[in-house]
Amino acid sequence: MPRTKGNHEARRRDVSEAVWRVLVAHGFGGLTMRAVAAELDATTGLLTHYFPAKRDLVAYALDLLERRTASRPRRAADKGLSAVRAALLDILPLTDEATDSNRIWVSSWDAALADPALRGDYARKYARSRDKLRDLVAAAQQLGELPGGDPSRIAAGAQSFVLGLVVQALFDPGAYPPHRQAELLDDYLATLTSTPSCGGDRAVPS
Q1: For the whole prediction, is pTM greater than 0.85?
Q2: Which of 121, 151, 186, 201 has the largest CB neighbor count within 10 A?
Q3: Residue 110 in contact with residue 116, Cβ under 8 Å?
Q4: Which three-class secondary structure string do you get for 180-204?
């Protein structure tokens, strides 16, 4: 019986779900053809139709991770400091889904660092994230909710802070439960609102 387009698409969805389950359970270190085949109850030979080589499987998994992360619900917020806060909260592992996603992201860093092409792709991903955060920072500055200064530099500092907090929360979730992560983020944002601008003016905390 010939395979139909519907059957093919259904099989691709099955493969995607199997890859995701392996990533959640074992991270990128455990992502192998054999592990995905076991999740599918299939042979590794079947997977070669989708992933001729291990690098194809890794590239697919990275794309799947990015799509899953992008599809997560985001916090709604007005412009200004509240929008900056919402964007940073969306990065943190505050829910089970966000924790799974962050754990997989961190486990993928080793694979990305070992591959020049992937390393460059990751650098561009984080740069795009900083650019979006920079625009939010600039809007907050225009509203007087953040002091003047280079919004790109402020965005880079905020991204660095929140990614460091992600790592700490993943390694020691008992010490960094969701409410503690939010508190630490608010403490960080408070330091930004009280930092004098280059001209010596201070922003009025909201």
Answers
A1: no
A2: 151
A3: no
A4: HHHHHHHHHHHHHHCCCCCCCCCCC
Output the CA–CA distances (angstroms, integers) from residue 17 to 43, 48, 95, 109, in the order listed: 16, 17, 20, 21
In one-letter notation, the amino acid at residue 149 is G
Asked whether the beta carbons of 24 and 100 are under 8 A apart, the reply is: yes
Phi, psi of 179 (to 5 degrees): -65, -30
The two counts, helices (H) then strands (E), for the chain are 9, 0
CA dist 190 and 65 (Å) reads: 32
Question: Rounded distance, CA 141 to CA 143, Å?
Answer: 5
- Among candidate residues 59, 131, 65, 61, the one with its CA nearest the CA of residue 98: 65
The residue-averaged pLDDT of 154-165 equals 97
**For range 2-19, the mean pLDDT:** 72
Structural contact between residues 27 and 103, judged by C-beta atoms closer than 8 angstroms: yes
- What is the longest distance spanned by two Cα atoms in the chain? 76
pLDDT digits (tens, 9 = 90+) for 76-121: 777 899 999 999 999 999 999 899 889 998 988 888 888 888 889 8
Alpha-carbon distance of 55 to 8, in angstroms, equals 22
Distance between CA atoms of residues 62 and 51, nearest Å: 13
